[in-house]
Sequence to fold (1085 residues):
Amino acid sequence: MTLPTQIQAGPRVRTISGNKGLQIEEPLIFEQGMKGRSGVDLPAVPQHKDRLGGLRRKGEIGLPGLSEPQVVRHYTKLSQKNFAIDMGVYPLGSCTMKHNPRLNEKVARLPGIGDLHPMQPVSTVQGALELIDQLAHWLKTLTNMPAVAMSPAAGAHGELCGIMTIRAALLAKGDARKRILVPESAHGTNPATAAACGYEVDPVPADDRGRVDLAAFKAKLGPDVAGTMITNPNTCGLFENDIIDIADAVHAAGGYFYCDGANFNAIVGRVRPGDLGIDAMHINLHKTFSTPHGGGGPGSGPVVLSAALAPYAPVPYVVHGKNGFDLVEQGGEALGRLKGFHGQMGMFVRALSYMMSHGSDGLRTASGDAVLNANYILAGLKGEMTPAFPGTCMHEALFNDEFLDNTGVTTLDFAKAMIDEGYHPMTMYFPLVVHGALLMEPTETESKDGLDRYIEVVKGLAQRAKAGDAAYFKGAPYHTPRRRLDETLAARQPVLRWREQGASVQENKAAE
Amino acid sequence: MRYLPLTDDDRRAMLAAIGVPSVDALYSDVPQAARLTAPIDLPPFKSELEVERHIGALAAKNLGAASCPSFLGAGAYRHHIPASVDHLIQRGEFLTSYTPYQPEVTQGTLQYLFEFQTQVALLTGMDVANASMYDGATATGEAVMMANRVTRRSRAVLSGGLHPHYRDVIETHGKFTGFEVVAASADAKGAEDLTKLIDGKTSCVVVQNPSVFGHVHDLSALAKACHDAGALLVVAVTEVVSLGLVTPPGEMGADIVTAEGQSLGVPLSFGGPYVGLFATRDKFIRQMPGRLTGQTVDVDGKRGWVLTLSTREQHIRREKATSNICTNSGLCALAFNIHLTLLGETGLTKLAQLNHATASRLADRLSAIPGVTLLNETLFNEFTLALPKPAAEVAEALAKKRVLGGVPVSRLYPSDASMRNLLLVAATETVSDEDIAAYEAALKEVLK
Amino acid sequence: MSDIRYSKDHEWVKLDGDTATIGITPYAQEQLGDVVFVELPEIGKKVEQGKELAVVESVKAASEVYAPVSGEVVEVNSALSDAPATVNEDALGKGWFARLKVADKGQLSGLMDEAAYQKYVEGLH
Fold:
């Protein structure tokens, strides 16, 4: 492959507007607003008795006024400054950026689903409760676990639910215990969750194969250990092959096994967590079951539970009553409630739509393809880059930055150069146990052709780095709406909202 | 399978390149006993049409709140969502993008979050807001934990007008992180005095405005009582449209304001996903949970945005993070942001007036029915009625007549017998004169 | 500068009477990168040797600053709140964090002098 040699991205042509063709500069809504303008027409306010008790807002709120076409253009232009799965390979390891089927969006908006109020009489929402029950059945069957708590709003919320359930179960036996064992490679949410539930976090080292060091793990077990939180497949993209021994050991010590299910997408239909001795695991519906990430949420994180933990689940939950489905909203004194209303229904619909579309056979194929794609990347790149661990991987391929030694190029620089090539960067510097980590997760969404092109480009970048072209990498990206941003400035002098000053210039312009 | 691009030929070629005989061989680290060899006992794949029919049939078993006169509130409100909101949030560049950790390719998300933060700060009358949380209830739980950090105290006082789900979420956190919760008894009449519950150990007082029973309160005196005792005032708002008309909590002395943002741009969707708002004073920024977007410049000196102050967060701080939260409610925050941008100052003000007018007219009509009493002196778009019969039975009977007449208070306070006959009734701009007439007629019949 | 002592956690301490001025070393600030925030202890707080005294944050990391000696906080460098970059610019001078009234001066003898610390840092590479 031939690579361009010039460092600058072609001659820099200055436009009058500052726009660059399809890259159009877009001010804040506050800089485009005009008093009195609105993008919504509302009927006249009828005569009525004022019942605000004198608490009417006095001054202006300060919101800008825009018409509907201005609003549509504003957000369309903003959207064009984003990379998305809809545009190309998004190999963000540990985040599972897979295709988001539009059927899911359609069914979530059906009348009778999108317009259901959470506090309607249960007799009027039987279909909704049945849908939740069906999704719960899929989740329990795929994991071989007897119960599931549906209400957690995201993965980290599911972790909170799981660890609280464990604490409640231990308390019922008379001792909540003190420590939770968490591998050093864990997602940051794991130690944060354990701490939020009043536990001390005891880190467990990884062995030289990127797995939990079983001997070190066993040595840390004791009567004050409440349990462990382990991601499997783990954050290095590897299956914890000692997992059953780990589960047995933690159970023998009287503790519980929480599995971070962030990477369940690698094993759906092929391995059931219930067969591995797991007591609780959250499932990120927004990863494994394709509900959209939406620029950072909303997520949904149902938690499957073992028989030992099921009695300590939070409210609410759906039950089969004598007049059809019923919703238990009170009780559950051990844990209580974690969220308003009943959970992320909009995400439940999407996830069920995805599961039914694949079916049992399709889900198994999808996880196999995700693992196959990751291994294809690993095999394609291992000549130019340095895999963190020998052997094959699960759904994501992990490299360290040894291949960049003495090039002057860092993992961050390498990632920024990928942006110019039209790819979203892989996950960087995570997991922490690997130096300068580069974690790539293609998911089953990518075709072989697409991966071949991706591998060519990433190899080309590795060659370019080794050829001593560090300056190119340091300056990247060149072709984005904004180039590298000053994060130090943002943190030293936080500007977290727009304020009035400076706006007058824009307003005058618009008035002319 | 329509979502999977690999063909069998592709798979064979790829396995050869990797040097393994089969996909199953890639699972060799899985203990043999746990490896499944056949598909799990669940239905096989379905076409798009079949899936749509299946879910459509489930939807058809429900009575959608948009298909009949509907007066439900209690923390979730049916409002009209302009068509452009749903169109814009479904643009793939928003819908299928991840958290904006790579600012160069996510300026779109970062800019709308910055606008969202500004809108929330303006609405609540506070200095700063974060980029959203799961929902109003969890945001309020986080507010209490933040107040505990700021004051280094561990006793939260909860108003009897706070939505019981919010109260329960706070109590759950209290149980597991070890702080004390003093919950005042249910305040259906809006007459409680919380000042006597505040002492030197109180970290915060949490009050909802308008309250779950619909009362609108002036919180200035309560704010002063909190501050005199070294405690913070946390104000929760479950109906954000009210902030278009009612004095914002920031002007009444609140230190933290949380809100359920569902009313702007987010469909009811049976309770979620929604969007939690969280705003506070500048001096507390470092103690604030959740993601924050900040303004900066790029290497060419152009203005841009990045996620900032992330050392507070779990991916860096791990067990010392301010919260375990990883995600926000990005797409719902976008819907909120777009809906509020469409409304603007005049639109929001008028929308709030319409809501108030409709609810006030409805209150007049319903409370004129013999045996029905309005408990509210003040209200925004929701109020409490005392009925001559158990409210749950009335709501059920009304639903049979295709009127979703309100939320029985007993559903929120099941163990409190004094609440049995109380019904929460909300009316938004979606309620027409015909809807009001239909409700009035149906209620008269049910109470006959 | 020879009266400055260093800890293995990269704090420095300088004794003046029974008051110890504490900061982080030039090596530590270099490893952290641009300092964006410093969380200082409250005056009157009693800290033990080796326990958390302050927190220093860069864009991507938050690190605890441990007390190299035990004592009671008598003064903090509140100028760092507005100008955290001072830690980068003058780690051994204006970038100091806190002053402690030292409980046991003997603890200083367990710390490294400049030469020993230089050697220690070189050994980290």
